[in-house]
Specification:
about 55% strand, 2 domains, Immunoglobulin-like, Maltoporin, Chain A
Length: about 725
């Protein structure tokens, strides 16, 4: 009897066992994928694709199943199928898409077209929200650390007593780097030596860095590159952040950022204050950190008349009192032996007006205007001078926006006026210029593998004439793992009174332009290869290798001339020959669960050629290494270790500096709306005073050696961030 039952139900059992067949392909390249895991959800039934991308799964019982497809580097997919199939021999075709690695979903605006970073032919480096938050915990008062710890960028201190700095990209002087905020050039000219020290990072959403000539994008001043600071935009949910920080170097920071919007109106407000007492790390009675009192306020209002239009207006004001030099003199306890103080009192106010109108066709009209007022009173010798800069920037542009190509055309107009007055308000110097420019830039998605950007700018400077600036960038995506970029462009820098040499001496001497002075011009390029993959389905690996070359013709030379008995003055002229900067950057990033490792290496050769000789540019380290290890759990904790190596540098005396390492530790813990952070910066206490003296006697009228290493040594800071 049992045998009869088995014989009767055996055909039914056979009929309930089904077969699933599929071919899995890469959607982008339409090629079969080998080794894709295919499983029925919540079962052990499954298989793997063969060399033809085919998988066959047998013995599937009747029913409705979700079949899952997973493959390293590709987004998981799933389909729901009911068995038995109407066609038992049906072969399904599954198209899998490449999974974006961390950072590739970032949208970049510095190239004037808002596109994902992975689709931009120009090499743009982005410092995003998490990294900004980490650097905010390390140095809340300004962005100097944020930039200095990026591969290929060196924040060079230009004054031992007042702490002024400039940004060097690719080993080139700070005047060749343009700093923007939301596409507005607000921080150049007279304020350049202080600008990095006066920009708090609390209101930033990301920082975009373009290395190599970027003059085609935003005009002159960007021969070495540009840094674009992108502000946070108000959202429907209120964002309110409070920050308090205290350092062992007797520094205190307080900041607040608040923003929100509704259907038609929005606002954001940044308020930041920094108080730093004069700090002497090596007990030589001279400040290694100057006494600083800074207050910054930036209210901004947004109006949204409809879904396609936006008007914004903001005003930023900064007040600062900065004093460096003899500790006793700074404290008001000066006597005949303690008199030297460098005093900088500055006031900055700049406006930002922007109107953007998106048409129903997808095209966009944009209008920008900014006015910048910067007033700086400098007293190094007891005979103070007051320098004033009034500048403006206006731009109109029209973007033709399509899925596979963009074209943007526009024009801008720049004005600048510099005036200098003595203590009796007598005008000592008056310099002004205007620049008008038109530009055309296109972005084209030639194919799935080739993307291109091409641009042309024509500027007319009222003193130095016309400049034509072409630029070309190409991106080739060889596969989902490999890609390469090439950018070539030209740039220029018109001479102005603003220079690193004048900054070092507080603009105390008149500036005389050589009658045959020419604008500096440049051409160069940067090429990089990028490789990314996911190892063992968990370890994300990203490697980028870049090489670059920039040549600057007619380099500006500022020399102090003392034709006794006539007054001392600065002579601005063109040096013979040219400057050639070349080098390489290597970046490696590994991410595994809660762990991140970043390693960067910079090789720089920056030399000036002329009269059959060449010499290295001063204060330009040939080798730099960045190492960062971070363990973090989102909205819980972060623990990090950093190490930075700076190689030997040529000094003004033609001698060479010592190479050195700087190391730091940081940690922060979050409880709901509260985050507590602790940072141990330079815990190895690396200081230049351990290698050589910084201040030279006589101390009532000292001279200073070049600054090439940290002066303040080990500094710890402890703070709290509150997100309401």
């Amino acid at each position: 009897m049992k045998l009869i039952i088995i014989i009767l139900i055996f055909p039914a059992l056979l009929s309930s066992q089904n077969t699933f067949q599929a071919i899995v392909k890469d959607k982008e390249h339409n090629e079969p994928l080998v080794g894709v895991n295919v499983f029925l959800e919540n079962t052990t039934i499954g298989g793997t694709t063969d060399q033809d991308g085919k998988v066959i799964i047998k013995d599937i019982p009747d029913g409705i199943y979700t079949i899952e497809f997973s493959y390293i580097g590709f987004a998981d997919q799933s389909i729901s199928i009911s068995f038995p199939l109407k066609d038992a021999n049906q072969i399904f075709e599954i198209m899998m898409e490449v999974e974006e690695l961390e950072g590739e979903e970032i949208t970049v605006s510095s190239t004037r077209t808002k596109r994902l970073i992975k689709d931009i032919p120009t090499r743009v480096e982005v410092i995003g929200g998490e990294e900004l938050d980490e650097k905010l915990s390390m140095r809340p008062s300004n962005i100097s650390m944020l930039l200095n710890e990026s591969t290929g960028i060196y924040v060079q201190q230009t004054s031992a007593s007042s702490g002024n700095v400039n940004i060097r990209i690719q080993g080139l002087d700070g005047r060749y780097t343009q700093i923007l905020k939301d596409g507005f050039p607000l921080f150049g000219g007279l304020s350049s030596g202080l600008s990095v020290m006066q920009i708090p990072p609390l209101d930033l959403s990301q920082v975009e860095i373009v290395k190599g000539s970027s003059s085609t994008l935003y005009g002159g001043d960007a021969i070495a590159g540009m840094v674009n600071l992108i502000s946070k935009q108000p959202g429907k949910e209120r964002e309110w952040t409070l920050l308090l920080n205290q350092t062992t170097a007797i520094g205190t920071d307080a900041g607040m950022f608040l923003s929100q919007r509704n259907d038609h109106w929005g606002f954001s407000t940044l308020a930041s204050a920094n108080r730093q007492q004069a700090y002497d790390a090596n007990d030589d009675n001279f400040s290694d950190l100057p006494q600083v009192k800074t207050v910054t306020v930036n209210p901004k209002i947004f109006y949204y008349p409809n879904e396609r239009s936006q008007l914004s207006f903001g005003v930023t004001t900064t007040f600062e009192d900065r004093r460096g030099g003899d500790i006793k003199a700074i404290d008001g306890k000066n006597d005949t032996d303690h008199v030297y103080v460098e005093k900088n009192r500055s006031y900055r106010a700049h406006t930002q007006l922007k109107f953007e109108k998106k048409l129903t066709t997808g095209n966009v009209w944009t209008l920008k205007n900014s006015i910048n007022v910067f007033r700086r009173k400098i007293d190094f010798t007891g005979a103070p001078v007051t320098n004033e800069q009034l500048s403006s920037f206006s731009e109109i542009s029209f973007l033709i926006n399509r899925s596979r190509f963009d074209v943007i055309v526009g024009g801008n107009f720049v004005t600048d006026r510099f005036e200098q007055f003595d203590q009796n308000d007598h005008r000592l110097q008056n310099d002004r210029y205007t620049v008008g420019g038109i530009f055309l830039q296109s972005y084209c998605n030639l194919s799935d593998q080739w993307l291109m950007e091409a641009g042309l700018r024509s500027d007319r400077h009222d003193e130095f004439g016309f400049f034509a600036l072409p630029r070309l960038s190409v991106l080739y995506k060889a596969s989902q793992h490999w890609s390469g970029r090439l950018t070539m462009g030209m740039g220029y820098k018109a001479p102005t009174v603003y220079s690193e040499q004048a900054e070092e001496t507080g603009y105390r001497y008149p500036i005389v332009f050589d009658p045959h002075l020419k604008a500096e011009t440049s051409h160069g390029g940067i090429f990089d290869i990028n490789y990314k993959t996911i190892i063992a389905d968990q370890l994300a690996f990203n490697w980028n290798q870049a090489v670059y070359l920039t040549r600057i013709n007619n380099p500006l030379e500022a020399s102090i001339v003392s034709p006794a008995p006539s007054p001392t003055y600065y002579d601005y002229s063109n040096a013979s020959g040219y400057i050639l900067a070349k080098g390489a950057e290597t970046n490696v990033k590994l991410t595994f669960e809660h762990f991140n490792l970043f390693a960067g290496y910079t090789l720089i050769s920056a030399r000036q050629y002329g009269n059959n000789t060449s010499s290295a540019l001063v204060l330009t380290p040939r080798h730099r290494v960045n190492l960062i290890m971070m363990m973090e759990k989102e909205e819980n904790y972060k623990i990090g270790y950093e190490a930075y190596f700076t190689g030997s540098q040529k000094l003004e005396s033609s001698s060479r500096s010592k190479a050195y390492w700087v190391m730091g530790l940081m940690g922060q813990k979050t409880w709901n709306a509260f985050t507590v952070f602790l940072n141990l910066e330079n815990f190895t206490d690396t200081r230049q005073s351990k290698f050589t003296r910084v201040v030279n006697p006589p101390f009532d009228s000292p001279t200073f050696n070049d600054v090439y290493a940290p002066l303040e040594g080990f500094v710890a800071n402890l703070g709290i961030k509150i997100h309401l």
